[in-house]
Specification:
The complex is a heterodimer.
Chain A: H1 3-19, E1 21-22, H2 25-46, H3 49-53, H4 62-65, H5 77-96, H6 100-117, H7 125-139, H8 148-157, H9 161-164, E2 171-172, H10 174-195, H11 198-201, H12 204-210, H13 219-224, H14 228-248, H15 252-273, H16 277-285, H17 292-310, H18 319-323, H19 348-376, E3 388-389, E4 391-392, H20 395-402, E5 414-420, E6 423-424, E7 427-428, E8 434-436, E9 440-447, E10 454-461, E11 467-475, E12 481-487, E13 495-503, E14 506-516, H21 519-522
Parallel strand pairs in A: 8-14
Antiparallel strand pairs in A: 1-2, 5-9, 6-7, 9-12, 10-11, 10-13, 13-14
Helix pairs in contact in A: 2-5, 2-7, 2-16, 5-6, 5-19, 6-7, 7-10, 7-16, 10-14, 14-15, 15-16
Chain B: H1 2-26, E1 50-60, E2 65-69, H2 94-103, E3 105-106, E4 110-121, H3 128-134, E5 144-152, E6 157-160, H4 164-174, H5 177-185, H6 211-215, H7 218-223
Antiparallel strand pairs in B: 1-2, 1-4, 4-5, 5-6
The chains are: A alpha+beta, B alpha+beta.
Chain lengths: ~525, ~220
C-alpha cells in the first residue's frame, strides 16, 4: 500500500472517529448525572456564599498561589449571592435539559469562576474535571435527547406521540470523544504522578493517606492500612489500569475491563480515602462510553424484560420494529432518522415562551436566594444581641502554641513495629506473635519521617526483661523501614519473650512473642 | 465553517490536555500559570506521616487571645469534619480568614495575629480498636506546635517561618557535626540585591509573595527559626 493510500486511510479513520454521527445518548446521561453530583457539592457551599466567594468574606483566589495579584475579579456580595442561586438553578436546568445549551454554558462559567475564587474549600481536581465536562457538554448536542427541550419540542410538533417517539437527530460524535479522551488523560496524568512518587510502589504513600483524617470517615481504609500486601498489589493494579485506560477503553473486552476496573477503583477511593464527590463525578463521566448501539441494545433488553416479567397482559407494540434491528450497523437502522426534528411544526412563540419562562424562573430563583441569604444572616450581624463576640482561648493552650517548638519524642519517629514471616514490596505482609524454637522470622520497624540518622537496635528480651540478644543497624533519614531477620535458637526455652526496639540506650517500643517448643524437641525420645 | 470550528476545537482541546500531561511528566512549567491547574492531573501527589491543623489566634490589646477561625458564627466543613482553614496547609490565606472574622465581630483592638501549625503522627488517627490490634503501648498522643506567620492586627505580614515538617527535616539534616561545620564556613553573602520588587496591585503582572525573603539570606529560610 502506498504512503498516500495509507495516509488517506488514516485520515478517514480519524474522521470517522470524531465525525461519525450518532444520537447523543451518552452525553445526555452525563448531562443528567453530573449536575446532580455537583449540586451535592455546591448546595452546602451556597449557604456560605458570602464568606467563600465574595469581597464581604474571606475569598481565597487560586491565582494568588501562582503569584498573580489580580487575575479575575472577586465578586461583591450583592453579586455573588444571586449568582450562586443562578448557578444552582442552571445545574438543575442542565440536568433536566431545559434551555440546555444556555444552562450548561452559564453553569460552566459560574462554576469555574466560583471555584477559582475559593482555592481552599471549593477548588479541587474533581471540580476541574467537572469544569471540563460542563464545557464539553455545552459544545455537544446532549440536550437533543432525554431532555425537557426535546419533550417540549415533541409537544410543539403536535405530531402523534408514536410517530415522534425515538425520533432523534444525530450529531457528530466528537464531544463524546473529547469526554472519553479527557478521562483517559486524567488517568494517564494520575499514573505519571504515581511514577514521580517512589513511595507509591512500597504502599507507604497510600498507607498514610488511608489514615489521614482530612476527608470523610473511611473505617475500611483505616483497617486495611495494616495490610501491606493488599496495598502494594492494589497500587500496581491501579497504575497499570491508569496507563492502559486511554488505549483500551474504546471497545470490546478492553472497554468492559477498563470501565469495570474504573468503577472498582472509584468505589475503593470512597471506602479507603473517604472521598464522595470525586468518585461520583468520575463515574458520571463513564456514561460517555455508552454509544447509540449500547443504548439500543439496553432498550431492547429492557423491553424484553418488561414483556416477560412486568407487563404480561400489556404486550408492547412490535419492539424490534420500533427500535430497529440491532444486528444492522447503526447508520442503517431506520428507527432513528437522520432527518432533522420537525422544527417547521414548532411555532416560534412557543420557543420564545420556553426561553422566557426559563428567564423568569432563573430571575425568581436568584432573587429568592438573595432574600433567603439575607434572612439567613450568615455573620449574625442582625441578631438582637448584635454581632458575635470573639471566642477567648485558654491561656495555657495559647502558651503551648506560641512556645518554641518541642523536640520530637523518639516514639513519634517510629510508625510501627511488627513481627512476621513474609515481606511484599519490602513491607511486612504477615503478622505473627507465635513461633517455634529454631524458626526464622522478620522484625520490621517502619519509620515516621522526618528523623535524623539513627542506630536502631532490635533486642530479644526474656520474660524477666534480661537482654538475650542484641542486633542493630543504621537507619538513615531516607529509609522508611529497618528489617531485622531473627532465627530463634533451638535451645530457647518455650515461653514469652519481648522484642525491644531501642536507640541511644532508650526503649522506643516492644512486641511480645511466644516461643513454642520446636517439633524436634517434642519428638519422643528413644529408649 | 461549522466543521472547521469543530476541528479547531478538537485540536485546541487535545493540545491543551497533551501540554498538561507532558509538562507534568517532565516537570516543566506546571506552576507557571493558574491555567495549568486545569490540565495537570497531580491528584494525591504528596504525603506526610504527620497530621496537621492550623490555628489562627488574635492577640488583643489587653493581652487576651482569641480564636479568629472559624468565625464565631460557625465553621464551614468542605470535605469532612475539618473546618475550612485546615485545607490551607501553608497558611497563605490565613490573614484573609482572620480579617474577615475581625470585620464581622465585636472585639477589643487586635494587635497581633498568629498563624500556628499543630502536628502529630498520623498513627494516632487509628481508632482505639485498631490501635489495640497493632500496638502494645497505650495511645499517648503529643501534639507539636509551630508559629508559621505573625501578622499585625491589620493583616500585614511581619514574620514568617518554615512549615513544621520542613523545620524537622532541617534539624534531621543538621544533626551532623561535619555538615554543620561546613555550613558555618560558607555563610551565604550577597554584595548586591537580586530581588526586584514589583507593584503587587498591578493586575496581570507577576510578583513574588516572598520577595522580602529573597532579599535576605537563603540560609534564613533553610534553617527556619
Amino acid at each position: 500500500m502506498s504512503a498516500t493510500a495509507s495516509q488517506a486511510k488514516l485520515r478517514r479513520r480519524i474522521e470517522r472517529f470524531f465525525f461519525a454521527e450518532e444520537v447523543p445518548f451518552g452525553p445526555a446521561l452525563v448531562r443528567i448525572a453530573l449536575p446532580l453530583v455537583l449540586l451535592g457539592a455546591m448546595l452546602p457551599r451556597a449557604l456560605h456564599v458570602r464568606e467563600l466567594y465574595s469581597t464581604d468574606g474571606a475569598s481565597t483566589p487560586l491565582w494568588i498561589l501562582y503569584g498573580y495579584a489580580r487575575l479575575l475579579p472577586v465578586p461583591p456580595a450583592w453579586l455573588a449571592v444571586p449568582l450562586s442561586g443562578l448557578l444552582i438553578f442552571c445545574l438543575i436546568a442542565s440536568s433536566l435539559g431545559w434551555c440546555t445549551r444556555f444552562s450548561l454554558a452559564a453553569a460552566t462559567a459560574l462554576y469555574t469562576w466560583f471555584n477559582l475564587v475559593d482555592a481552599i474549600s471549593t477548588m479541587t481536581k474533581y471540580s476541574v474535571i467537572a469544569s471540563h465536562v460542563l464545557l464539553l457538554l455545552t459544545l455537544s448536542r446532549c440536550g437533543d435527547v432525554w431532555s425537557l427541550d426535546a419533550w417540549l419540542s415533541r409537544r410543539r410538533s403536535q405530531s402523534p406521540r408514536a410517530a415522534t417517539r425515538g425520533l432523534h437527530v444525530r450529531s457528530p460524535v466528537w464531544p463524546r470523544r473529547l469526554l472519553q479522551l479527557l478521562i483517559g488523560c486524567v488517568y494517564f496524568g494520575a499514573a505519571v504522578t504515581k511514577m514521580h512518587t517512589p513511595s507509591y510502589f512500597t504502599g507507604d504513600q497510600l498507607r498514610f493517606w488511608m489514615i489521614s483524617d482530612i476527608n470523610f470517615g473511611h473505617p475500611v481504609g483505616e483497617y486495611l492500612s495494616a495490610h501491606s500486601a493488599l496495598i502494594v498489589a492494589g497500587a500496581y493494579i491501579t497504575i497499570v489500569w491508569e496507563l492502559l485506560f486511554l488505549f483500551l477503553a474504546w471497545r470490546g473486552i478492553g472497554r468492559f475491563v477498563m470501565l469495570g476496573l474504573g468503577v472498582a477503583f472509584h468505589v475503593m477511593t470512597n471506602l479507603l480515602l473517604g472521598l464522595y464527590i470525586f468518585p461520583l463525578v468520575s463515574l458520571s463521566i463513564y456514561f460517555a462510553f455508552l454509544n447509540e448501539a449500547d443504548v439500543r441494545a439496553l432498550r431492547i433488553r429492557w423491553r424484553k424484560f418488561q414483556k416477560r416479567y412486568v407487563r404480561r397482559s400489556q404486550r408492547p407494540a412490535d419492539v424490534a420494529g420500533s427500535l430497529g434491528d440491532p444486528s444492522l450497523p447503526v447508520a442503517e437502522r431506520p428507527a432513528y432518522s437522520q432527518a432533522a426534528p420537525p422544527k417547521a411544526l414548532v411555532p416560534a412563540w412557543l420557543t420564545m415562551s420556553s426561553s422566557a419562562t426559563f428567564a423568569v424562573a432563573a430571575t425568581f430563583v436568584a432573587c429568592g436566594f438573595t432574600l433567603f441569604e439575607h434572612r439567613l444572616d450568615p455573620y449574625g450581624l442582625r441578631r438582637a444581641e448584635g454581632a458575635h463576640r470573639l471566642r477567648e482561648l485558654d491561656p495555657p493552650l495559647v502558651q503551648a502554641m506560641l512556645a518554641p517548638a518541642k523536640p520530637v519524642r523518639l516514639e513519634d519517629k517510629v510508625f510501627s513495629f511488627d513481627v512476621g514471616t513474609l515481606t511484599v514490596g519490602g513491607s511486612l505482609a504477615t503478622r505473627r506473635r507465635q513461633f517455634r524454637a529454631g524458626e526464622e522470622f522478620i522484625a520490621q520497624v517502619m519509620m515516621n519521617p522526618p528523623f535524623e540518622d539513627m542506630w536502631l537496635e532490635c533486642n530479644l528480651h526474656d520474660a524477666e526483661d534480661r537482654v538475650l540478644n542484641r542486633i542493630g543497624q543504621p537507619v538513615t533519614r531516607d529509609m522508611m523501614r529497618a528489617t531485622f531477620i531473627y532465627t530463634l535458637p533451638h535451645s530457647l526455652e518455650p515461653g514469652e519473650y519481648s522484642l525491644v526496639v531501642a536507640t541511644r540506650g532508650r526503649e522506643i517500643t516492644r512486641r511480645t512473642i511466644t516461643v513454642r517448643p520446636s517439633p524436634a524437641s517434642r519428638a519422643p525420645l528413644a529408649n | 465553517m461549522k466543521r472547521r470550528l469543530a476541528v479547531l476545537t478538537i485540536v485546541s482541546y487535545l493540545t491543551a490536555l497533551s501540554w498538561g500531561v507532558v509538562g507534568h511528566a517532565l516537570s516543566v512549567g506546571t506552576a507557571s500559570h493558574p491555567a495549568m491547574y486545569f490540565v495537570v492531573w497531580d491528584m494525591f501527589c504528596g504525603w506526610a506521616a504527620w497530621s496537621q491543623r492550623m490555628h489562627i489566634v488574635g492577640e488583643g490589646e489587653s493581652g487576651r487571645y482569641y480564636e479568629l477561625a472559624p468565625g464565631p458564627w460557625g465553621p464551614f466543613r468542605p470535605f469532612g469534619k475539618l473546618d475550612r482553614r485546615n485545607y490551607d496547609p501553608n497558611g497563605i490565606y490565613a490573614g484573609r480568614l482572620a480579617l474577615n472574622c475581625l470585620r464581622h465581630t465585636r472585639h477589643e483592638p487586635i494587635v497581633r495575629i498568629f498563624v500556628v501549625e499543630e502536628s502529630w503522627p498520623k498513627k494516632f488517627n487509628l481508632p482505639e480498636h485498631l490501635w489495640a490490634m497493632r500496638y502494645e503501648e497505650p495511645k499517648d498522643v503529643q501534639t507539636y506546635y509551630r508559629v508559621r506567620h505573625v501578622l499585625t492586627g491589620e493583616g500585614a505580614l511581619v514574620e514568617t517561618y518554615s512549615p513544621w515538617l520542613e523545620y524537622q527535616a532541617g534539624l534531621a539534616l543538621a544533626d551532623n557535626p561535619r555538615l554543620r561545620a561546613d555550613a558555618r564556613r560558607s555563610t551565604p553573602f550577597y554584595a548586591i540585591s537580586v530581588a526586584r520588587p514589583v507593584d503587587p496591585n498591578s493586575a496581570g503582572r507577576r510578583y513574588s509573595p516572598g520577595s522580602v525573603d529573597l532579599l535576605g539570606s537563603p540560609a534564613a529560610r533553610i534553617s527556619g527559626n
